[in-house]
Amino acid sequence: MKLRDINAFTAVVETGSVQQAAGKLGLTQSAVTRLIQRLEDEFGITLFDRRSKPFKLTRDGELAFAHATRILRLTAEMADALATSPEPKGPVHVGLAHPFTAAVAGRVSTAVRAAFPAVQMHIYADWTQRLLKSVSDGVLDAALILLPEDRTPPTDLIAVPLFEDRLGVIGRRGRRTRQQRTLAFLNDTGWILNPDGCGVRRGLEAALSRLNITPNILVEAHGLELQLALAAQGIGYTLQPSRLVGALDERPRPDKQIILSLVLLVFVTLGTCPGAAEGGRQQAASEPNAHLADTIVTWLSADFSLPENYQHPRIEIVSPMHMAAVRYRGLGAFLQARVVSDEQWLERMRDTVALYEDNRRTIYLREGWTGATPTETSVLVHEMVHHLQNLTGERFECAQAREKPAYAAQKKWLETAGLDLFREFETDPVTLMLRTACGF
User: Per DSSP, what are the bridge partners of residue 220?
Assistant: First the structure.
C-alpha cells in the first residue's frame, strides 16, 4: 500500500470523478484509474460501484475511505511535527500593548530579523483587550500584553508567562513625605494616564473606587515617553510598569510608589484549547520517584541493549497548554504551527500524553499522570528511551526512526502486564508504522 494510491482514491471520492481527481493531482485519468485498481487488488475488494453515475462507494469503499483520510491526516501531522522545516519565511503579525512600544518594539524587530532574515515583521500597538480579540480572530499571530495578577487569560488562547513586574507611580524627583505615599494624596495632585481603554488605567480606577475616591485625571496622553516627560515637569503622576521604564535609554528618574502587581504574558493562538490557560506544574508528589526511573533503566538496558545510565532526566507534570508551549517553543516552530487547523491542533493536544526535550533533558508528562497503572508507566518507559538515546548521542536516519525503539519498549512493557499497546492507546498497526518509518 502506497500513499500515492491512497491520495488518488481520496481525490476521486472528494471530487466525484476520475477526471477532476486527475486534474487535482496533476496526473492523467488512466494513471488515477491504475492507482485505484492497484489498491483494490492489494486488498481484494471493490472500492466503487462503477455501474452508477457518478461513482458511488461500496461498503468496503466507505470503510477504506474513513481509514484513508485518517492515514493522510496523520501523515500530514507527522510531517509537520517531526520533519525538518525550511528556513521560516513570510509575514508574521505581532501585537504589542501600548506600554511596550517604546521599550520593546525595536528590540523584537531586530532580534527576529537576525534570527529569521526571511520573516517580515508586522508590529501593531493597541490596548490589551483589542489585541486579545485580534489574536483570537486570527488577525494577529501573537501579542505581548499586560494583565493584572488577579486576571486570568482567555481559555481559548495559549499563554506563555514571561515575567512579573511591579506597577509604580512616577513623578518629578523631589522630597517625599509619608503623606505622599497614599493614593489619596497622589490623586489630589492628579494623574497623567492613557485614554480610556487602557488596562493600567482601569486597575488604578478600581483601586481608587475601593477607597471611594473619584479619579483626578489631569492629562490623557498616549505613549510612555510623553507621559514620563509630562511627569518630569511636575504636572502630575503617571503609572507605569517599572521594568519598562528602566528599559528606556533616557528618562526622568522615577520616584515610585508600588500600587499593584502585573503579570506580563505573551499570547500565541494555536487553536481552541480547553482547560486553564496558564500551564503550570503539579506538585512534585505526582512525579515519578527515582526508584521507578532506576527500575525502567535497568529493564531497558537488559531487554533492549540500551546503556545502563542512571543519570535521570528532569520530570515534570504539566498541563496540555504547557506541553504545547514546549512543543512549539521558538518562532520557527510557531510559524509551522500556524498552518495546522484548529481541529487538527485540538486533536493533537488531546493525543499528546508526553514529550521529551533533548536540550533540557526533561520529560513532560500530561497532568493527571500518576504512574499507578502499567499503561501510565509505559508512557514514561517510552520517554526514558529517548532520554537514553540523547545521553549516548545516538543518530537516526529520520525523526520517525527514533520512535521505533521507544514504541517497541513501550509495547513490551505493556505485554509483561498482559496489556496491548493498540488497545490501551486506541491506535492501530498502520498508525504505528507511519510514526516509526522513514519516507511517510
Answer: 193
Helix (H, G, I), strand (E, B) or coil at 139: coil
- CB count in 10 Å sphere of residue 225: 14
DSSP-assigned letters across all residues of 191-218: EEEPPTT-HHHHHHHHHHHHTT----EE
The one-letter code for the residue type at 194 is N
Is the Cβ–Cβ distance between 296 and 381 less than 8 Å?
yes
Q: How many CB atoms lie within 10 A of CB 230?
A: 19
Burial of 79 (0-12, 13-18, 19+ CB in 10 A): middle
Query: What would the pLDDT profile of 184-241 be if each residue is shown by its tens digit?
Result: 888 888 999 888 777 778 778 888 888 899 999 999 987 777 888 888 888 888 887 7
C-alpha cell at 82: 517531526
Strand locations in 149-205 (E): 158-170, 191-193
In a domain, 273, yes or no: no
Phi, psi of 228 (to 5 degrees): -65, -40
Least Cα distance to 70 among 1, 10, 4, 2 occurs for: 10
Residues of the domain holding 126: 90-268
382 lies in some domain: yes
Please compute Rg for the chain using Cα positions. 29
- Three-state DSSP class for 271? coil
Is 178 found in the same domain as 110?
yes
For residue 353, what is its C-alpha cell? 500524553
Q: Is the pTM of this model over 0.85?
A: no
DSSP state of 330: S
Number of CB atoms found within 10 A of residue 110's CB: 11
Whether 243 and 109 map to the same domain: the answer is: yes
Of 31, 57, 82, which residue sits at a domain end? Answer: 82
Strand order in the sheet with 314-318: 314-318, 362-366, 354-357
Here the cell at position 427 is: 491506535
Q: How many domains does the chain have?
A: 3
What does DSSP say about strands 119-126 and 90-97: parallel, antiparallel, or unpaired? Answer: parallel
Q: Are residues 431 and 298 in the same domain?
A: yes
